[in-house]
Each structure stands twice: as C-alpha cells, then as structure tokens.
C-alpha cells in the first residue's frame, strides 16, 4: 500500500481536516493511480510525496475558496486522472460530481476509482466539453464548474460557463500567468456571461509554488450559440 504521509502532514497547513475513512480512500486512489499509470498515461507525477503535494493537496486547495457548499452539483472539465474532482468528492461526500474528459482510457480509469473507493453520487463521462455543453441534460445544470490545467482562460470559459447555472460559479485553478490570461479573456467573459468575482493566491505546502484560484460568477445565461462546435474554441478563441 502507498503511503499518504505528506498529504496528512499538509492538510493542517491548508486548514483542512479529512476523516480517517477519507484518508484511506486517498491511499487506495494513489495505489490505483500508480498501477494504471504503468499501462496508460495518466500523470507524469509518480512519486508518493509528489502525488500528495501536486495532485491531492493542490486539488484540495479549492476548499480555501468557500464556494464548495454541501450538496453542490459540480462538474470537473478535463478531469484527466480525476483532479480536482475526486479529491473534492472525498473531502465533501455530500457533493454531486460529474467528471468529464475527452480521453476514454482516462474515463475507464476513473470508473474503476469510483468503484473501488465506493464513491456515491459521482460519475465519469467521456466526450468533449463543447458537445456536452449543448446537451440539455448538462447545460446550465451545475452550481459549480471546476477545471485544472486544461486550456488558457479565454478557451476554458467557452468549455466551462455553458454548464453553470445563472448565479453559479466557475473555479479555474491556475498559476501566476492567470493575470495575463484574465486580460485576454475579457471579451469571452462578456459574451459568455461571466464576471471575475475573486482571486485567491494559495501556497502549496512543501513547495515554493503559488497557485491562483480564480472564481468567476455567472451573471447571465450563455447565448445558445456557445459553445461552438468541437475544436472551434481552441482554433479561434473568443
Ligand atoms: C493536462 S490534463 C489535466 C488533467 C487534470 N485536470 C489535472 O489537473 O491533472 C488535460 C485534460 O483535459 C482533457 N481535455 C482537453 N480538452 C478537452 C475538451 N475539449 N473536453 C473535455 N476534455 C478535454 C484532456 O483529455 C486531458 O485529460
């Protein structure tokens, strides 16, 4: 079994607490991550303490925003190996979580994690954000969309904001380059109905890395012509 010692030591540094049952789930999650990573490419981060810091603790920094309320319905866009969606679900079991990724082999891994960790009220779906964003089962159905390491903000907003209900939030987990990205995303924000609400700078424990959690509030409905068809947001960002 993997150890999650660095995760356990890092939680108080983020003012977070996770019950022993949750810690056991992180341990099992790490076992599966390392096992599957031998067969399919999920993450370049392979060492125990690095997984704790750069995947688990980094994902959990999202709780510093106070946006994730009990029972919130959340979608993680481009979740990859489940970050930040699975740590969110382990920490707050009352949330309803949808994990979305365009790479099917990663979605298969996520389904195995959901099964083995016995997580409830969570599912992994395979496809592109541009396609699910026009599907009425998903469009404007979420209190919160989250995303880490998927695309520059002007592109990411077109992937994410269509999923968020009016008065809901999109939380983008970024590095310090976010400040330039915000300037470049001014037009996309206006078109898609978003407004910058807050920026939280968070120091990642046991590292010299500072990440920024950008909280965008959805202040009006997204026009039905967005998202444009798959590939278009990236080819021709707003
Ligand atoms: C660099 S990985 C980041 C994964 C994870 N969020 C993390 O922080 O570790 C980006 C992920 O986004 C997915 N992705 C990229 N564009 C997408 C799109 N348009 N719709 C859905 N998933 C997408 C990719 O398949 C990939 O798994």
TrEMBL record:
- Name this protein carries in UniProt: Ribosomal RNA small subunit methyltransferase G
Positions that bind S-adenosyl-L-methionine: 78, 83, 129-130, 148
Q: Which InterPro entries match?
A: rRNA_ssu_MeTfrase_G (IPR003682), SAM-dependent_MTases_sf (IPR029063)
Give this protein's Gene Ontology molecular function annotations.
rRNA (guanine-N7-)-methyltransferase activity
What family is reported?
A: Belongs to the methyltransferase superfamily. RNA methyltransferase RsmG family.
UniProt keywords, alphabetically: Cytoplasm, Methyltransferase, rRNA processing, S-adenosyl-L-methionine, Transferase
Localization per record: Cytoplasm
Known role: Specifically methylates the N7 position of a guanine in 16S rRNA.
- Electron transport as a keyword? no
Supply the CDD domains for this chain.
AdoMet_MTases
DNA-binding as a keyword of this entry, yes or no, is no
Give the Enzyme Commission number: 2.1.1.-
Which gene specifies this protein's sequence? rsmG
* Gene Ontology, cellular component aspect: cytosol
The organism is: Senegalia massiliensis
């Amino acid at each position: 079994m993997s150890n999650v010692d660095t995760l356990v030591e890092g939680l108080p540094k983020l003012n977070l607490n996770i019950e022993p049952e949750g810690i056991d789930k992180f341990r099992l999650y790490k076992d599966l991550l390392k096992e599957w990573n031998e067969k399919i490419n999920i993450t370049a981060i392979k060492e125990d303490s690095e997984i704790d810091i750069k995947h688990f603790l980094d994902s959990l920094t999202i709780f510093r925003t106070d946006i994730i309320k009990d029972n919130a319905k959340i979608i993680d866009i481009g979740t990859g190996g489940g970050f930040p969606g699975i740590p969110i679900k382990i920490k707050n079991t009352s949330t309803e979580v949808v994990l979305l990724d365009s790479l099917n082999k990663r979605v298969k891994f996520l389904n195995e994690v959901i099964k083995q960790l016995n997580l409830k009220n969570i599912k992994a779906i395979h496809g592109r954000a541009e396609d699910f964003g026009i599907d009425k089962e998903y469009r404007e159905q979420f209190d919160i969309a989250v995303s880490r390491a998927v695309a520059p903000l002007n592109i990411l907003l077109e992937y994410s904001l269509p999923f968020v209900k009016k008065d809901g939030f999109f939380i983008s987990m970024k590095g310090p380059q976010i400040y330039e990205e915000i300037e470049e995303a001014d037009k996309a924000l206006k078109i898609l109905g978003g407004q910058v609400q807050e920026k939280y700078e968070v120091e990642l424990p046991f590292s010299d890395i500072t990440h920024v959690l950008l909280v965008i509030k959805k202040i009006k409905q997204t026009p039905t012509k967005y998202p444009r068809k798959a590939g278009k947001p990236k080819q021709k960002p707003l």
